[in-house]
Amino acid sequence: MSTMPSLFISHGGPNIVIDDTPARHYLEGISGLVPAPKAIVIVSAHFEAQGATVVTDPNPGMIYDFGGFAPELYEMVYPAPGEPKLAGRVLQMLNDAGIPASAVEKRGFDHGTWTPLKLAFPEANIPVVQVSVDPDRDAHWHYALGKALAPLRDEGILLIGSGHITHNLRALFPVMRGSAAPDPALMEKVNAFTLWFADRFAENDRDAILDWKNRAPFPAENHPTDEHLMPIFFAYGAGGDQPRIERAHSSKQYGFFAWDSYLFH
């Protein structure tokens, strides 16, 4: 069995499922970029908890954690099963690595999980285990989270970090609603930020990447809060010490909402 890559995706809003965008088409093609997974362990920016929390629910329901979107999005389901046995292993691996982890028995799929998976694996027949981000922890902690689970890749398990390479919703929503035009200055700051990450990943410059808040240009403008970037560090850690890093997708909506995705082989 070949080793599975780990993956970071920018998941967008729930409308990614119905909008005709390059990011949607990329997500629809993910099954062609990775071997068929036996299971998926996903860290979503919309699952926040203190420390590492692992979902053991065998039949996760749906969480419609959004408002003001098309009515059909609130009727969509992603009926993939959970996998309590794998969740138990994840808990043990994290605790063995010195990362205290706890279980939650019932939790549905938030849109950071179900929307990209509905596009990438629409059959919903691959077991999914969810793991939280901790918004009070930094890039180093989330990198260690991924590193602790990296051995699962050798078993055909796909490790996904689902967040966003940039996430300035205060700027996004007025543009989406047509009440404001995109800010050219913000476009330049987004370009600088995303290119900095692309360049640092091309060099596998771990020290700089994990110190992004001090070294990346315009961190606050791209991430007023940190939780949507933390999944990239999970995926990076899950890729191993010297991963081959591929910027698998790069597009922008409205000129400043970036959709970068990375594979860590």
Automatic annotation (TrEMBL):
Its cofactor is Zn(2+). This is Dioxygenase. It comes from Aquamicrobium zhengzhouense. Keywords: Dioxygenase, Metal-binding, Oxidoreductase, Zinc. Residues 36-259 form the Extradiol ring-cleavage dioxygenase class III enzyme subunit B domain. The keyword Metal-binding applies. Belongs to the DODA-type extradiol aromatic ring-opening dioxygenase family. It comes from the Bacteria. InterPro entries: Extradiol_dOase_DODA, Xdiol_dOase_suB. The keyword Magnesium does not apply. GO terms for molecular function: dioxygenase activity.
